Every structure is written in C-alpha cells, then in structure tokens.
Amino acid sequence: MRPKILITGGAGFIGSYLCEQLYNKGYEITVLDNLAPQIHGEDNFQSSLYLRVKDIVRFVYGDIRDEALLQEVVAGQDYIVHLAAETSTGKSMYEMSRYTDVNITGTTRLLEAASLHKDRIQKIVVASSRAIYGEGKYRNASGHTVFPGMRKAAQLSAGIFDVLDPVSGHPLELVATSEDTIKDPSSIYGITKQSQEQLVMVGSKSLGIPAVALRFQNVYGPGQSLRNPYTGVLSTFSTRIRNGKDLNIFEDGLESRDFVYVSDVVQSIILALECDQANDEVFNVGTGVPITLLKVASLLEAAFGIEVPMHVSGNYRVGDIRHNYADLTKIREALGFVPTVPFEEGIRHFVAWVKEEPIAEDRYERSIHELIEKGLYR
C-alpha cells in the first residue's frame, strides 16, 4: 500500500517541491494549507504554488489551529511533515500574538490530533530554524568557544557591527554552528520556532512516535514569494533591481547567512522521513558556507544584468543577527546529506525563474515604514 502522509503548509514554497518529490516516490499526500495571501496573492487558488500541487494531493483548505479539521486530516496518516508557520523575523517583533498563536498553538493542536492516532503514525518531521540559535557560534583569541548573545543597541548605534567578546571586547571569529550550540533566539519568530521544535520532540516522545527536527538555514529558489518584503533578502533585492530602485544594504554589508537551495532542503526532509537513523534527532540543514549581503547583491545584479545604486547604510533591524552558518557534520554522517547546489548556481536558477515572472510591486519601503513606526529599524 502507498504510504499516507500529511504535509501542513504543503502548498507553500518548500511544501510544493516536497509534494512533487513524494508523489513521484509513491506517497499518498494530504495537504493542509490556508493559502496565505502574502505567499499566494489575493487570487490564492490561482497561485503557481497551489497549481503545482492541486492535482497530485488531496488538498484541504484550512487553518493549522482548527482542532476539528486537524483531527479529520490526521486520521489515517502514516507520516506527518509539519511546515505550516508564520515565518517573518521582522514582523514577528510586532505581531507577537499571531506568531505565537499560529506557530505554538497550531503545533500543540496538531500533536493533540496525532495523539488520537499514535498507534498508526510512524514519524513526525518538523521544520525548525537556524533562528533558534540567535547569533551563531564563535571563537575568541584564546581558541575557546563563545556564545555571545545579542549585540547591544549602543554598539549597533555606534556603527560597530562585529560580534564582540563579552569579556575582552575584541571581535570574535565566526565558526560553523553545530546542533549543540546554545539556543538563544533574538526574535519572537525564533522563540516560536524553538517552541515548535521542543513541542514536537517532547510531545512525540510521550506518544511513542519517532520525531525529527530539521533546523533550516535561509531557504531560497524558484517559487519563493516575491510579494512579501518581510521574508527573503533575495526576493526583496530582486524586486528592487527589476523596478530599477536602489538597494539598501543594512549594517556594513558584511553580515552573512547560509543560503540553502530548496531542492536540497527537500532532500533533507525525505532523508529524515525514510532513515531510521534520523529518529528522535535534530539536524542542521544548510550548505555550510556563509555568504555576505554584499555578495548577494552583486551576484543578483550580475545575474539580472542590471546595475542599480547600492547604499551600505549602517541601518539595522532590532532582532537581526550578524552571522550564522551550519555545521553539517551530524546530518552528513548520520543521513548522508550533502548539499548539491552551490549558491552561485542557485542564484542563476532563481534569477532565470524571476525573469519569467511578472515584475512584483515593490513593497519594501512600506515595510521599512512599518518597522520605523514600531521602533524596530534604526
């Protein structure tokens, strides 16, 4: 018999790719998704992401917090992949109730529904985030590991963006963030993702259901939302470039992220589902390579063949981290995960897709005004 799987948020960016791969592998898929307008647009049942999955899944339109609906869609499932979540770091800082309600309450209600079918469900995989770490892992001049915590507002206001040793005051050396790194989220979003992960790992254990948490770095690729200025610097920069507008590079442009291509993320989810070695473990998912925002901007300009003014402004957002990139030792050794798409190649695929899309309305400045009004942009 075909294995049955529920994917919450399965019509989203990552979920739609995952559905295609699992359908090709013979899974019988149910998707629960609310087709949020910031991802799918106002005519959400015509979005390319929804159209990608509608003929290969049983689609259920609804909210992750709907208890009765969850009990209905969880019944009869062999596996659950929990992707549904609110995802913007910046917005989470002033829509705290919504983020905690969707991400935390929604997860608890999913687990409550799973508890009614614990004898059938074989595994739950939850999408966690590098945001649970806050700042990444560092080394001081003596070679000791340091977890520095959030940068101070006075330091950032003075234009000192490097992460400093809390003892000596000297800049720290960045190293890859491993799974045993101290969890110190610097945003409400990060707190909710940490809660999601812990709820699934602890709740599933109490139910006797194996669980896996995957801590995704910055996921990108064709199909990601070009409408939402709050999530994804690639989408924001691309929309600005196509509209001929300048790029505002926060801080000094040397802050970095680990950008992982969507097909590699899907590979990690399938490995987590199908490998018993993944059971009851947490794994980083990324490329293990940090990329600065200045490099992101320059690669996008080159790929589009369009030059726009770049301003390294020194502005910063409250809750942003300086650096974080994944140590992949654990997932490579346990599951054989190896990312296959280098950032330069992924950017070419991403830009080729963007060029075929209508030029999106540039909502960046509106988003900045919202952050200024909330005191979160300085």
Protein architecture, described:
The protein is of the alpha/beta class and 378 residues long. 38% of the residues lie in helices and 16% in strands. It has a seven-stranded parallel β-sheet, sandwiched between helices. The protein has a three-stranded antiparallel β-sheet with strand order 7-6-8, with no helix packed on it. Helix 1 links the parallel strand 1 and strand 2. Helix 4 crosses helix 6 (96-115), helix 9 packs across helix 11 and helix 11 packs across helix 13. The termini are far apart. The model has no long low-confidence stretch (mean pLDDT 94).
Query: Helicity level, as a percent range?
Result: 25-40%
Low-confidence stretches: none
The backbone outline, from C-alpha atoms, is globular
User: Kindly, what is the distance between the CA atoms of the first and last residues, rounded to a whole number of angstroms?
Assistant: 57 Å
Oligomer: single chain
How does the major sheet shape up? 7 strands, parallel
| β-strand number | 16
Query: Largest beta sheet: what is the strand line-up?
Result: 3-2-1-4-5-9-14
Q: What is the average per-residue confidence, as pLDDT, rounded to a whole number?
A: 94
What string, H for helix and E for strand, traces the elements in order? EHEHHEHEHHEEEHEHEEHEEEHEEHEHHH
